[in-house]
Amino acid sequence: MKPLHIIPYFYLFIAALFIYDIITKLIASNYDIWLSLGASAFAIFMFFFRRKYAKRMENHYQGKK
């Protein structure tokens, strides 16, 4: 069950990389940020989704014991 607790933070790391990409593009006056913005929003969504799923699975397996 350890990977289920680590994977959501991987999505936060990916979101941070895309947010960094957005900031560097804005500083360089390149306003083509939509793909990075969408990818970072998706990664943040996946963080919360995976975290909720991991808690649900943990509760499910605790109930079986």
Short synopsis of the structure:
It is built from two helices and no strands.
Q: How far is the N terminus from the C terminus?
A: 15 Å
Mean pLDDT comes to 89
Shape: rod-shaped
Helix content: over 70%
Structural class determined from secondary elements? mainly alpha
* Proportion in β-strands: under 5%
Say how many strands there are: 0
Order of helices and strands: HH
Number of domains: 1
- Count of alpha/pi helices: 2
Q: Cα-atom Rg, whole angstroms?
A: 16 Å
Uncertain residue ranges: none
Main beta sheet strand tally, sense and closure: none
Transmembrane segments: 7-27, 33-49
Keywords: Membrane, Transmembrane, Transmembrane helix
Overview of this structure, please?
Keywords: Membrane, Transmembrane, Transmembrane helix. The chain crosses the membrane at residues 7-27, 33-49. The chain is an all-alpha fold. The protein has one domain. Helices cover 88% and strands 0% of the residues. It has 2 helices and no strands. Helix 1 (2-27) packs antiparallel against helix 2 (34-64). The radius of gyration is 16 Å and the shape is rod-shaped. The two termini are 15 Å apart. The mean pLDDT is 89.
